[in-house]
Design goal:
Chain lengths: ~160, ~500
Amino acid sequence: MAVTAGPSRRIVEIVFAAALIAVAGAVFVLSADYPAESAAFPRVLAALLALCAVVVTVRQLRHGAEAGGQPFFAHLPRFLLAVVILVAYVAAIGVAGYLLPSFALAVGLPFVLGYRRLALTVPLALGTLAAIVLIFNVVLERPLPPDVLMHLWETVR
Amino acid sequence: MIDALVHALPHVFAPANLLAVVIGSIAGLVVGALPGLTVTTGIAILIPITFGLDPLFALGMMAGMYNAGSYGGAIPAILMRVPGTPASVATILDGYEMTKRGEAAYALQVAVVSGVIGSALSAIALILFAPPLVKVSLLFGPAEYFWLAMLGLATISALLGDDLVKGVTASLIGLLIGTVGQDLTSGTERFTFGSLELMDGFSIVVLLTGLFALPPVFQMAEESIKEGMSAAALKFRKQRSVLREWRYFLPVWLRSSAIGVFIGIMPGAAGSMSSFLAYNDAKRVARSPETFGQGNPEGVAASEAGNGADNAAALIPALSLGIPGSGVAAIILGGLLVHGLRPGPQLFRDHPDVVYGFMLQMLLSAFLLLVVGGLAATRIFGQVLRLPRVVLAPLIILFVAIGVYAVNNAMFDLYILVGVGLVAYVMEKLGYPQAPVVLGLILGPMAESQLRLSLTISQGNPAVLVSSWVSIIIALLTALVLVTPLYRAWRERQRKPAAA
């Protein structure tokens, strides 16, 4: 349970509020370089944001133990896996284009999450990608990210 | 108004725009029916896809998705006791009991017809009330617009979610994001870190998509549900006709629709509240209230009519004043801005074909529900419900990724999308509502520019902000909206020790 659940909701509440205070502080400091009229609005917002975050933190510290002990994640490893795969997917689009990483994602993500029926996921991935190419590339005439498959196709031609 | 409506009619019934409403309705039915996905998610996915298309085509899809999506939630609620959307929780109470008695088809029929009636009456209210409300906004100057933005943010912050502080925090996050980019008054670059991509600020399409489309994907991956709906659940046999029993349902439809429209117009109040209030009202006036919760079709009718009736009504303050009545209306506001359409008098003056066309599309999509949401259609489109959610999650990412990339052909936007999606997921799980972020982003630049304009006109005198009776009223309303939840919380705290 402890392995899959990760940090408690209370901890995440406090960490998130602390991050907001940090952001507010950064906004306040960075605004010092701007002319007064451009700095005033973000500075007021930053001060209010920090105030709200402090209220959330104090509430958690005073009363959070009553209900905040439950785990934040239903299943932390699966969440982390999804995040890593999503970041890798976006990075792969920059390198290999849209089609290959998308196919790998549509088939691979359910597979690593325990769904192994390739007879469903492979045709579904191909069908979805065909529909996307048809809608975006053919009908709407929008360019897809430069794709390694297209380079290969050009080379073969 | 009549002239504008007549002029907009041919645009609405143009084949392409008609097709958009049909596609939006089918997609909305699917999105609403899939537990974990909401209309908000569906529209967030639509916005990048329809970016760059004719506004009426894009808005037609949104109208279809809005009305059909809010009904779609009733399908799993009735068949599986799983609410497809938060608003369909009240439908479960009697709908699932009817399914257990073998009346699933009849319950679905009651739900769809009630949804159609609620949505249609709501669209008529939108057509009747939005244009006169626009005239009120003509009384507004810079100070009044500043307070209007504050009122919009206050209502959305206070009424969406259970926690005022978190609602306000979400608004402030949106307002701060809205300050990124070049300050149009002084030309100063704020928080761009020298990045050319941030010169014009964050793309609203990317933010909307990240905020609303990615959190359900992370949720689906985390839950990793590997079973879809069984095929047997989608086999219906024809039962009684709701339309033949219209006299029996009429009072419930009218009362529930009136409640839904009223709640929809109240800024920030729409959503699941109207279906519950309509349900409670129907139970209160029923001859045999004890049958509610035991499979009374009036319960389904009340919940679905109330649910449908707050849809278009939530757009009344959104289109005329820029204050959305619900979270979905806030997203649609974002969708309008993406197409260069700013709510308020200019929208009605400069783009009458689009705004009246959109209102007619809301009405059209309400009636289209009868076709798209009927039993045969539910059986066909409901096949998507058989897909396990773990398979569905990456397919959503495929659409979202290409839609966001296509806006600026920029990889930068995809990285922003992932970052925003992660923060949005944490916010959602911690109970920070996301709609105020969007509204902060939309209203922030307006609030700042109008505030600065007011202060410039008054040579820096802040008293200008309360120098007219309209400003004072809106400022007081804003304070009231913010103070009411605080007062309620204080009273709760006073009661607790007394009870102990």
